[in-house]
Amino acid sequence: MEYNEHKPIYLQNVDLMQEKIVHGEWPEEERIPSVREMGAMVGVNPNTIVRSYQLLESQEIIYNKRGLGYYVKSGAVERIRENVKKEFIANELPQFKAKARMLGITKEELIELL
Amino acid sequence: MIEVRNLSFSYSNVNVLDSISTTFEQGRIYGLLGANGVGKSTMFKLLCGLLTTKQGTIEIDGCSPAGRKPSFLSKIFYVPEDFDGPDMSIANYAAGVSQFYPNYDAALFARLLGEFEIDVTRKFTSLSLGQRKRAILALALSLRTDYLFLDEPTNGLDIPSKAEFRKMVAAAMDENRTIIISTHQVRDVENLLDHIMILDKRAVLLDRSVSDIQKEYWFDVTVNAPADALYVEPGLGGCCSISRNTTGEESRINIELLFNYINSKK
Description:
The complex is a heterodimer. Chain A is mostly helical. Chain A has helices at about 10-20, 35-40, 45-60, 75-105, 105-114; strands spanning about 60-65, 70. A two-stranded antiparallel ribbon of chain A has the order 1-2. Chain B is an alpha/beta fold. Chain B has two domains: about 1-200, Rossmann fold, CATH 3.40.50.300; about 210-265, no CATH class. Chain B has nine helices and twelve strands. The longest helix of chain B is centred in the middle third of the chain and has 14 residues, at about 130-140. The interface of A and B includes residues 39, 42, 43 and 47 of A.
């Protein structure tokens, strides 16, 4: 896996896990790899991976079944889409707009390109 | 747990460690960083009883490495930077060495050698540097010791082997183990480390978890250096800088930049 320069690794791992859930690779109400298995898959310290799981648990994307491991919560896909959309509108869209403005790309041109 | 107190060591007239005190806790992978000659390899040799000193003490689970008790030695393994290996096959060497390590997992060893594409019947003397290194790293991880010291483990490894190595170490980690990796190739192992220790001859300059460092400092690359930056280096794509983290968000740690910053302050 290629890592981005600026985002902390535990958040990049959150992105990876969310992608797997949204793409259906990890279906809702099914078990996902353990922290250790995930660490071994991506070559990242398990203590870092724990932070990704904690964040996703606090956002009700995954949950822990005692003694069984972590499962994807039902409704997770919808919640991920909402969260990522908010983030996109707050962070990525303004940058995109600023760049389009700098390059003098008009709304009509943009619509055509999209 | 490893407790090092007022440890000093010198080779004839050359002082390498001068009154160093620190601890290494279980369940962590430490990155032991330091300029050439500050004594990282010496520290490893002292920790596993290959060198002894009268100045200062080391206790590992309450035991002094200098005593070289078999029960103590079975809990630690050290992979030196240059491992030549004896004139015998990997299989024979592993069979001999593993006798001393009760937690040795032969099936794991076979699997790791497979992942590293190393033939267990080969003699060390017929292998390249990178192949020897892969063989000894596979063995080191299979001995499943509580303490594992890796001196420049990625030196000599090719690019795919480095990725395999990271996965193996991540898989080997659990809450009872302590892994200390000394390296100048920070990029090779940075995602493995959860604790950074920067060593200097006379002091431990930094001893903190990666998440604490990310909470305190903000690492950034910008066109112009931020006015309140603590440390700045010109780099590709702008100025690499370290500032105080005031946002509560976290950025990705840049260990090389951090190392240079900490060394510039000493």
